[in-house]
């Protein structure tokens, strides 16, 4: 197959009405590895907002059952992507996701920010490290897809365009990124998990962690109190990712069949599969104490601690 055949296919589709098909091709055939990395990093960066990171720490899901929580997130979103937003599995996935979120007092602003990271981070990742960038038509389709996802999650005041999502994400992070030891614990647990995924599991954990830090902006590193990597380390690892992109472009052919999240080897919690209705958590109460000071002297006060 022509290396650009899938790009030509997505650019012939209407980003306003056929965005689901475009996103399915991008995520499962054109850039399956890159988009998986980018979405993992998108979720990771949200922990630096204390109202998000503290909640995740208090539920215990991301620092005590990190693999399962990661798998649940992938598989719920995967059901929507594979079967379609309006399909029965898609509706079941939204219902399960909304039930989990509805058990906690999560602000619309935080929900909208998390949505923005899923829109913006993959576009930026591919521009930096992919074998090619998204085309303008693909960017519009990617944006429209997550706008539809956000509507089905009940998120209000969703941005209309990709540029508006960029402004939202960058502005929210500049205002809300802050250190909290509990958020840092969630980030550490996530990095520990990522170090177990092939091929990272073949490298020393310290090297994998260093690699991850070279991909983080100064503000994100500071929010977690992570040490800044040297300029040499940042250059070497980023050049390695760019070299991978060149290899994919010139040495590999496009995937002829989709690769969905449930088929990936690093999804390990359900070897025999699991109905989407049984994924995730089934909380009965919000774990964060409202109206009481939850941050000790070692925590910097967050603008708002939601749950």
Descriptive terms for the model:
single chain; 307 residues; mainly alpha; 14 helices
Layout of secondary structure:
Elements: H1 5-12, H2 19-30, H3 32-46, H4 50-59, H5 61-64, H6 66-83, H7 88-102, H8 108-129, H9 136-152, H10 162-176, H11 181-194, H12 205-214, H13 218-224, H14 231-251
Description:
The protein has 307 residues and is mainly α. The chain has one domain (17-268). It is built from 14 helices and no strands. The chain has helices spanning 5-12, 19-30, 32-46, 50-59, 61-64, 66-83, 88-102, 108-129, 136-152, 162-176, 181-194, 205-214, 218-224, 231-251. Helix 3 (32-46) runs antiparallel to helix 8, helix 8 crosses helix 10 and helix 12 crosses helix 14 (231-251).
Q: Tell me the fraction of residues in β-strands, as a range.
A: under 5%
Largest sheet descriptor:
none
Number of strands: 0
SSE pattern: HHHHHHHHHHHHHH
Work out the radius of gyration: 19 Å
Total DSSP helices: 14
Principal-axes geometry comes out as: globular
Provide the residue-averaged pLDDT.
91
- Kindly name the structural category: mainly alpha
Helix content: 55-70%
Distance between the termini: 48 Å
What's the structural domain tally? Answer: 1
Low-confidence stretches: 290-307
In short:
With 307 residues, the chain is an all-alpha fold. The chain has helices spanning 5-12, 19-30, 32-46, 50-59, 61-64, 66-83, 88-102, 108-129, 136-152, 162-176, 181-194, 205-214, 218-224, 231-251.
């Amino acid at each position: 197959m022509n290396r650009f055949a899938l790009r030509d296919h997505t650019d012939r589709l209407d980003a306003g009405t056929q965005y689901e098909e475009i996103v399915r091709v991008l995520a499962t055939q054109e850039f399956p590895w890159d988009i998986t990395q980018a979405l993992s990093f998108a979720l990771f960066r949200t922990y630096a907002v204390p109202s998000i990171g503290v909640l995740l720490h208090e539920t215990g899901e991301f620092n005590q059952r990190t693999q399962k929580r990661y798998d649940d997130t992938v598989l719920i979103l995967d059901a929507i992507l594979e079967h379609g937003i309006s399909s029965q599995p898609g509706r079941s996935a939204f219902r399960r996701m909304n039930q989990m979120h509805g058990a906690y007092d999560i602000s619309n602003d935080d929900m909208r920010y998390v949505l923005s990271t899923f829109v913006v981070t993959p576009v930026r990742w591919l521009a930096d490290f992919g074998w090619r960038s998204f085309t303008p038509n693909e960017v519009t389709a990617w944006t429209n897809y997550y706008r539809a996802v956000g509507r089905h999650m009940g998120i209000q005041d969703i941005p209309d365009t990709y540029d508006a999502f960029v402004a939202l994400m960058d502005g929210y992070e500049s205002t809300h990124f802050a250190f909290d030891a509990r958020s840092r614990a969630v980030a550490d647990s996530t990095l520990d998990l990522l170090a177990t995924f092939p091929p990272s599991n073949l490298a020393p954990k310290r090297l994998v962690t260093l690699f991850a830090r070279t991909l983080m902006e100064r503000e994100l590193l500071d929010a977690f109190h992570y040490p800044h990597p040297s300029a040499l380390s940042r250059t070497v690892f980023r050049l390695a990712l760019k070299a991978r992109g060149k290899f994919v472009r010139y040495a590999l052919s496009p995937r002829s069949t989709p690769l969905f999240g449930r088929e990936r080897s690093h999804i390990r919690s359900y070897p025999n599969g699991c109905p989407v209705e049984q994924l995730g958590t089934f909380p009965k109460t919000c774990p964060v104490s409202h109206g009481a000071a939850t941050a000790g002297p070692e925590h910097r006060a967050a603008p708002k601690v939601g749950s």
